[in-house]
Backbone:
């Protein structure tokens, strides 16, 4: 029996690594956290190094290398598409290089660690991209049986995959092949709206509530629903039908070339240039794009329910990061319970590839259900003290009770605190271990944070972290949301109490905080609740236009660059 299984997402955006000892997850981390380049793509050498150090082993002790891509998946369909469409030589060369990189991945990794590839006996398992997504959700879900859906831009020539999970087995039912893609649809219009960076789709989601979906009918010409429960794009609106998706990551960060065509411009007007003011038309188009995304998602889900009869669903893939759509699934479909993992995006496929090998291929029993989100780096007290002293900064070291009292006094008085605790979260959202916190009662808190700390667009909302037992009192028909993966409407009588985390449409992307998942964060919110009567804190990720902070030094740097009032690292407190 293999002891150590290393899962990696490599040569792809959001590169990451995850290490399992048998079926126990030892560590998982995104490469960007260490290299400090958002969405870093390439071979995740530093992420692998971190996982090995956490386990106290060398690379040579890894028995299985599970790669969340399969260069041989849908190979016939790939060749036929390239020939039929006459894809340009540059795109062909780029894809060929990427495929070759995957086939030499064991050698590349061994070389990076100074290991002779011939002496490393690890078995390489290629797991199709969307099967990795499905596995990353199903095998860590509370469901013995569930309908599974993965939706993103593209991976291994698929953009969508539907399946059924039962016990240890995942049975794929159907898929949508490239170039048809809901993720690419959303990305193309994100670019058109003047947000060109990889991963900017969440900005469109944040802008959408400021507009009305007046362009929804026009978008029906761009993407159409099919009677088989799937969908198709109109190739006239997208350049990748002829030219492929132009992507490179020579500098570490993935860069995607323009995907929308002149047909989009002729139908919707001139594209917004980055930095141009946002107008009503932009907000209306964002609302229309979001509504179309939701419509396609509900179509996929409802048809999958009809085919399977299942009401427990797992959702993964880049589109699963659309928390607004996720929060509407239960009221618009037959789904009763929806599980979305903390890393539904491509980084999560590192976990998914390993889980697919462990459970589907090796048929190992799944461990008992537990929320897993805190799998990254931690700092010990000596390292924290050293980092503070190296800067010559004054600090206090407090026991828990006076610490919680001091922090909540700061927040209740209008202060902003950096909160650096325990192991870092895996995934794109801070869940109370690498967070910036503020008082949700302050109507001006959002503007304060956006201007003085986050330095980002004013329309982007902040999240409420709420004690789990109070969620139903503050939100309309919520379920468990431990990973901040769903948006629900805040009850009208509660919106006035927590204006800083209430979006313009009355919604909030909540995180339900349970004591067993994060006792320290739970205790802090409880202390705030006892002082104010509000069981909620404003929570945003601990960063400033960079990856979430990973080390005490990075936390201190961010604190010094911004106008935070307090930094709390474990029991150490630094104040202005």
Residues:
């Amino acid at each position: 029996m293999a002891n150590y299984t290393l899962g990696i997402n490599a040569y792809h955006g959001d590169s990451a690594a995850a290490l399992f000892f048998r079926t126990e997850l030892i560590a998982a981390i995104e490469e960007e956290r260490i290299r400090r380049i958002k969405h870093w793509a390439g071979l995740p050498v530093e992420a692998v190094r971190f996982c090995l150090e956490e386990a106290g082993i060398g690379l040579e002790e890894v028995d299985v290398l599970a790669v969340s891509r399969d260069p041989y998946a849908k190979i016939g369909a790939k060749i036929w598409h390239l020939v039929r469409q006459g894809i340009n030589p540059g795109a062909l060369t780029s894809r060929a290089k990427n495929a070759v990189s995957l086939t030499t991945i064991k050698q590349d990794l061994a070389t990076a660690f100074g290991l002779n590839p011939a002496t490393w006996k690890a078995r390489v398992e290629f797991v199709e991209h969307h099967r990795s997504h499905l596995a990353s959700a199903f095998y860590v879900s509370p469901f013995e049986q569930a309908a599974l859906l993965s939706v993103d831009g593209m991976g291994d020539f698929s953009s969508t995959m539907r399946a059924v999970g039962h016990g240890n087995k995942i049975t794929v039912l159907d898929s949508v092949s490239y170039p048809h893609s809901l993720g690419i649809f959303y990305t193309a219009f994100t670019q058109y709206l003047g947000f060109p960076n990889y991963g900017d789709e969440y900005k469109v989601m944040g802008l959408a509530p400021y507009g009305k979906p007046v362009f929804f009918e026009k978008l029906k010409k761009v993407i159409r629903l099919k009677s088989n429960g799937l969908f198709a794009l109109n190739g006239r609106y997208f350049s990748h039908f002829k030219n492929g998706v132009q992507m490179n990551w020579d500098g570490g960060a993935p860069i995607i070339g323009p995907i929308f065509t002149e047909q989009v411009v002729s139908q919707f007007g001139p594209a917004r240039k980055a930095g141009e003011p946002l107008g009503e038309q932009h907000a209306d188009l964002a609302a229309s794009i979001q509504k179309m995304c939701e419509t396609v998602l509900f179509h996929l889900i409802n048809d999958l329910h009809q085919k399977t009869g299942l009401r427990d669903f797992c959702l993964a893939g880049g589109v699963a990061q659309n928390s607004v759509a996720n929060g509407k699934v239960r009221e618009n479909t037959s789904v009763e319970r929806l599980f979305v993992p903390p890393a539904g995006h491509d980084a999560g496929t590192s976990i998914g590839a390993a889980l697919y090998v462990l459970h589907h291929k090796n048929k190992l029993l799944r461990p008992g259900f537990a929320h897993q989100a805190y799998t990254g780096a931690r700092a010990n007290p000596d390292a924290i003290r050293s980092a503070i002293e190296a800067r010559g900064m004054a600090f206090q070291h407090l026991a828990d009770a006076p610490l919680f009292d001091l922090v909540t006094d700061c927040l209740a008085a209008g202060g902003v605190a950096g909160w650096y605790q325990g192991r870092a979260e895996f995934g794109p959202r801070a869940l109370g271990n690498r967070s910036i916190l503020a008082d949700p009662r302050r109507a001006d808190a959002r503007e304060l944070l956006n201007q003085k700390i986050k330095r980002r667009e004013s329309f982007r909302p902040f999240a409420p972290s709420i004690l789990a037992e109070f969620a139903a009192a503050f939100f309309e028909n919520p379920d468990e949301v431990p990973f901040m993966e769903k948006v629900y409407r805040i009850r009208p009588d509660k919106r006035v109490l927590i204006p800083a985390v209430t979006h313009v449409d009355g919604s909030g992307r909540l995180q339900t905080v349970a004591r067993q998942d994060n006792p320290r964060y739970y205790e802090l919110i409880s202390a705030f609740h006892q002082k104010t009567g509000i069981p909620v804190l404003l929570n945003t990720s601990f960063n400033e236009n960079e990856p979430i902070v990973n080390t005490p030094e990075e936390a201190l740097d961010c604190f010094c660059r911004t106008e935070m009032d307090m930094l709390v690292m474990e029991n150490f407190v630094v104040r202005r």
Q: What stands out?
A: Residues 280-308 form the longest helix (29 residues). Residues 515 and 522 are 5 Å apart (CA to CA).
